[in-house]
Amino acid sequence: MIIGKVIGTVVASRKEDELSGLKFLAVAPLDLKTGEVKAGGVVAVDAVGAGVGEVVLYASGSSARQTTVTKDRPVDATIMAIVDTLELGGDVIYQK
């Protein structure tokens, strides 16, 4: 899994039928040492009810299709958890 921050929403009114009813969010990866947003990102299906500004764990590739929400659907990234706390070496980098 990859840790990232939800930075926006994606709306697609026309899409493959298998994607109907899914919520799409723009997610940028986080630097684990600083908690800062890094360059790049993905559009991920939200399987847990995340929102903009939240720190999340997401999976990409075939692992993205292992949730109840995404099983057998054509997705390449899925948000699988909302992070409450990120602690590194005794320092809290992120607290919800």
In short:
This protein has 96 residues and is mainly β.
Notable features of this structure?
two-stranded antiparallel ribbon, OB fold (Dihydrolipoamide Acetyltransferase, E2P), single chain, mainly beta, 5-stranded mixed beta barrel, 7 strands, 0% helix, 43% strand, 96 residues
Structure characterization notes:
With 96 residues, this protein is an all-beta fold. It has a single domain (2-95), classed as Beta Barrel (OB fold (Dihydrolipoamide Acetyltransferase, E2P)), CATH 2.40.50.220. The protein is 0% helix and 43% strand. The chain has no helices and 7 strands. The protein has strands at residues 2-10, 24-29, 42-46, 55-60, 77-82, 85-88, 91-95. The strands form 2 sheets. Strands 1-2-3-5-4 form a 5-stranded mixed β-barrel. A two-stranded antiparallel ribbon has the order 6-7. Strand 6 (85-88) and strand 7 (91-95) form a beta hairpin. The two termini are 19 Å apart. The model has no long low-confidence stretch (mean pLDDT 93).
